[in-house]
Design goal:
Length: about 450
């Protein structure tokens, strides 16, 4: 009987297990902490309390992996939105023009997404979850060429056991031990690239005011590095008529986690729109802080030797600054490619070299988007972009400047940021012509244009 082991029940691990269930007789998911019995915060996903955006590409793949995804989310009262139409965004160019982009998302808490995927997998008869299990080491054949299983510590009674496996996938996140395990087996650890903008963010949840309506589901205010304002923030309306409000600051411009400091930080954003909305709103949580936001790419694709039957994916392979909302969607993209490769090679025939080569291509564009933005800030650590990349950044600045004015450019920009199209789309001749046209004509926008509509409070007696 064929057996696969997945280390970690992160979203990446859950999606890997979903794919594997179609190709092996049994999948075992090992989780270091206690797995929940309902939708609740998990300590192993520390960023779960903060705002998460399910980008359109990730949503598209989830609907393929879970055919009832849309119907189930609708039953839970989770909206389906057009990101171009239902997002009000303030950027360096002002308030962007709303467009019906056909780019769909579901504003939802991370806890609900994780619980949905986990609860769906628990219904699969060939997927087993083991809580409070910690992998101690990889088990191999005598030549250390093939991984044949894992040695597992039961954290309840401190006993150990060996689980035999035909394929092991490490989806344990940023704390992955695979680099050390490889060295223990006589292999090289992967080289690592880190780009750290020292971004920190703080989040608070609010109850939406009763009887008020808003013309957006997401309200976004971006930092303006060229103008010296390193603060940004967002509000997302999620299930239960709640707001998740996340404020962030780059290059150690960290938002406070006390009540007054949180509000004052919101007031100092490039627009006061978020502050005006939340200053009288009812908070339903404390303020949560988070500062582990560096981009880390463990370059397994650069290694010349790999033990067979071991694959690394998710944040264990490459983790992004979470402020850009790419993590869940990249995990889904990786799972989709895992599915394609298993269909082509089978679990026993899929070589790590082939797998990592494909993953590196998936990672390249989100990595470019995240690190390119982070490297705009002077205090960011990491290799500075070359002259060509700097020229591209200057051009993207012009793209952003016309977002309040042009629907075609705006739609292309939205699709790129939702991983539906590669960044190269912004350099199409027709897009360049539109951007340069506005630039050469010196067209500027009235800053109040496209601003979100402030809700009217219900009249007394309504």
């Amino acid at each position: 009987m064929s057996h696969a082991v997945v280390i970690g029940s992160s979203l990446s691990g859950l999606l890997a297990a979903r794919v594997l269930s179609d190709y092996v007789d049994q999948v075992t998911v090992l989780e270091r902490d206690e797995l929940p019995e309902q939708a609740e915060y998990r300590g192993s996903v520390p960023q779960a309390r903060h705002l998460h955006v399910l980008l359109a590409k990730g949503r598209e793949i989830l609907t393929q992996l879970f055919p009832r995804f849309e119907a189930d989310f609708a039953a839970l009262g989770i909206a389906t939105i057009d990101i171009g139409l239902d997002t009000s965004a303030f950027t360096a160019g002002g308030w962007t023009k709303r467009v019906r982009a056909g780019v769909l998302s579901n504003p939802v808490s991370r806890v609900t997404i994780d619980w949905y995927v986990y609860s769906q997998l628990r219904q699969h008869p060939n997927v087993t979850f083991l809580s409070r299990r910690e992998v101690q080491r990889l088990v191999t054949d005598a030549d250390r060429r093939i991984v044949t299983g894992v040695e597992v510590l039961n954290r309840e009674d401190q006993s150990t056991q060996t689980l035999a496996a035909d394929l092991v996938i490490d989806a344990s996140g940023r704390t992955s031990k695979t680099p050390q395990w490889l060295q223990d087996l006589g292999y090289d650890a992967p080289p690592r690239t880190v780009v750290n903008s020292y971004l920190g963010y703080a989040t608070r949840w609010f109850q939406m005011p009763a009887g008020q309506t808003f013309d957006w589901h997401i309200l976004l205010i971006t930092a303006l590095p060229t103008k010296g304002n390193f603060r940004g923030g967002a509000i997302q309306r999620i299930e239960g008529d709640r707001w998740v409000v996340t404020l962030g600051g780059v290059n150690k411009t960290y938002p406070p986690t006390d009540d007054d400091g949180f509000l004052e930080f919101a007031r100092q954003l490039p627009s006061t729109a978020i502050y005006e909305i939340i200053k009288d709103a009812e908070p339903i949580s404390p303020v949560y802080g988070y500062r582990r936001t560096e981009n880390i790419w463990n370059h397994y694709e650069r290694l010349s030797r790999h033990p067979e039957h071991l694959l690394v994916m998710g944040d264990a392979y490459c983790g992004f600054n979470p402020i850009y909302g790419q993590g869940m969607s990249v995990a889904a993209m990786e799972a989709q490619k895992l599915d394609e490769l298993l269909r082509q090679y089978g679990p026993a025939g899929l070589s790590p070299a082939v797998f990592y080569g494909v993953l590196a291509k998936i990672i390249a564009n989100p990595w470019l988007l995240a690190t390119g933005e982070d490297l705009r800030y002077p205090g960011t650590e990491g290799d500075r972009p070359g002259w060509l990349a700097r020229m591209a950044q200057k051009y993207v600045d012009r793209v952003i400047a016309v977002l309040p004015l042009d629907e075609v450019v705006g739609t292309a920009f939205i699709k790129v940021n939702n991983l539906m199209e590669p960044p190269q789309v912004l350099f199409r001749p027709d897009i360049i012509a539109r951007v340069l046209g506005y630039t050469l004509r010196g067209v500027r926008q009235d800053e109040s244009l496209n601003a979100p509509v402030q809700p009217m409070k219900p009249a007394v007696g309504d």
